[in-house]
Backbone:
């Protein structure tokens, strides 16, 4: 049997046998080749960079969007041109973004193309010719409720600077990888020929693993959660933004429109809906918001740098410590059928978390993790050496389940890995997994609940008691509290 310690490969440097310090000095993020990590390129970090290379990349992005705007305004585009100019695949080889499983995403298909085409000859006819802000920004396309989402912006940005990323990766590969670790690869849609008005491909020497190449990304252009210029921030601070508009007439019109949409005691959702409707009526407000974000751009770099470091600590350093110190070389990676294997993993993790300081994996800056998607990514990264296929967010028409472990069509186990603080925990335990079992044609499921405090423990205990789930072997509670309380397994 292969020694799991010898194949404990999770990150780029593991698979290519490179000292992580070399990648750190080069400036690239050490991505996992097991699952996407939740980072993406923020175009504002290109715009506001002191590096002329990044500034030129931002100018190239804006030039291309202006090209799309001009073509959209001039005429109704034939389908062939819409496909050529507006459709882009997901650049899955960078192993970053919002993929729920592995590194596969949907890319930028017809829905994005229609939304972008429509907006560029309606609400954003003046894109690229702004006079209020210091420059034009791709993020502006997402500030209205117009079908362009966060993942679209991420994929679009990555596609438009893909040529740079490939050159950046090629330089690293030629300097630090062995010839057997890289391969000459033909890549489509790398640079745009404005004279011929079509995308061209290119050929590069790139890191090669498991039948595909890998793309590296500089850490200085990455962020997490939201871009610096984003819709959530705009709506959340709308009541502070529009009163600062220097155009008195516009300010009064906006104020009148906004207040007419509010009741006497509006709740937060109502305020955001009113703000959204007002932005649709007065899209020029966007430029004032963007100018404010430009003027405080130094904070964008500080916050993004912190987010990248936290992501590195959470998904790289802490997961690596868990695997190296506690999991690799143990029975954690010797597996019979999927149910026993999955349950054994859960109990092994439980022992590590409760009795061997593994709980620290679930804390950042002294605070417990409160996002289940982060928890799921961390859990997925521990399956690096398993012959069992483990899929995340499997959806068989009845809603997604966190994990499905499978060996062929007859051996499947579903795993729900939840936080005790989840407000829908009771409903999930009562109905959700049973529905998933039927949809996936399996009777095997495991429910794992991570709690941090006595209050959370009592809440979960009461729910399990009410649902008659106490003592069920496939329901496991894990104590991740820093006080390392005694085991609270319901088994």
Residues:
């Amino acid at each position: 049997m292969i020694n799991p310690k010898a194949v404990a490969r999770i990150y780029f440097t593991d698979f290519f046998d490179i000292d992580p310090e070399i990648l750190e000095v080069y400036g690239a993020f050490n991505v996992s080749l097991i699952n996407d990590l939740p980072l993406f390129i923020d175009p504002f970090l290109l715009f506001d960079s002191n590096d002329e290379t990044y500034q030129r990349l931002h100018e190239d992005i804006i030039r291309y969007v202006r090209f799309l705007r001009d073509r959209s305004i001039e005429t109704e585009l034939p389908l062939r041109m819409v496909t050529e100019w507006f459709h882009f695949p997901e650049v899955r080889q960078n192993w970053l973004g919002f993929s729920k499983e592995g590194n596969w995403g949907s890319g930028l298909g017809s829905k994005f193309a229609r939304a972008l085409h429509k907006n560029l000859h309606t609400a954003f006819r003046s894109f690229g010719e702004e006079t209020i802000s210091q420059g034009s920004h791709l993020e502006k396309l997402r500030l209205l409720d117009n079908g362009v989402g966060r993942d679209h912006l991420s994929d679009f940005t990555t596609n438009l600077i893909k040529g740079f990323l490939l050159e950046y990766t090629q330089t690293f590969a030629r300097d630090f990888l062995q010839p057997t670790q890289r391969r000459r690869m033909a890549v489509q849609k790398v640079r745009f020929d404005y004279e011929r008005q079509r995308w061209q491909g290119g050929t590069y020497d790139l890191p090669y693993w498991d039948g595909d190449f890998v793309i590296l990304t500089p850490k200085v252009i990455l962020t997490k959660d939201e871009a610096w210029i984003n819709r959530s921030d705009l709506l959340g601070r709308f009541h502070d933004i529009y009163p600062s508009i220097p155009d008195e007439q516009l300010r009064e019109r906006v104020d009148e429109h906004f207040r007419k949409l509010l009741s006497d005691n509006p709740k937060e959702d109502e305020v955001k809906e009113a703000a959204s409707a007002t932005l649709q009526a007065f899209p020029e407000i966007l430029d004032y918001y963007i100018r404010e974000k430009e003027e405080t751009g130094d904070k964008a770099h500080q916050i993004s740098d912190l987010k990248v470091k936290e992501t590195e600590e959470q998904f790289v350093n802490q997961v690596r410590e868990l695997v190296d110190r506690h999991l690799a070389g143990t029975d954690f990676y010797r597996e019979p059928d999927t149910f026993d294997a999955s349950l054994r993993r859960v109990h092994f993790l439980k022992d590590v978390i409760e009795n061997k300081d593994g709980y620290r994996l679930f804390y950042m800056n002294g605070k417990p993790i409160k996002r289940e998607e982060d928890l799921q990514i961390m859990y997925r990264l521990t399956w690096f050496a398993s012959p069992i296929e483990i899929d995340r967010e499997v959806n068989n028409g009845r809603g997604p389940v966190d994990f499905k472990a499978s060996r062929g069509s007859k051996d499947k186990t579903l795993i729900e890995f939840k936080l005790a603080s989840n407000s829908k925990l009771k409903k999930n335990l009562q109905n959700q997994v049973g529905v998933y079992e039927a949809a996936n044609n399996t009777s095997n499921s495991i429910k794992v609940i991570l709690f941090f405090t006595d209050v959370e423990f009592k809440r979960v205990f009461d729910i399990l008691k009410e649902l008659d789930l106490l003592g069920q072997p496939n329901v496991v509670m894990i104590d991740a509290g820093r006080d390392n309380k005694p085991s609270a397994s319901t088994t």
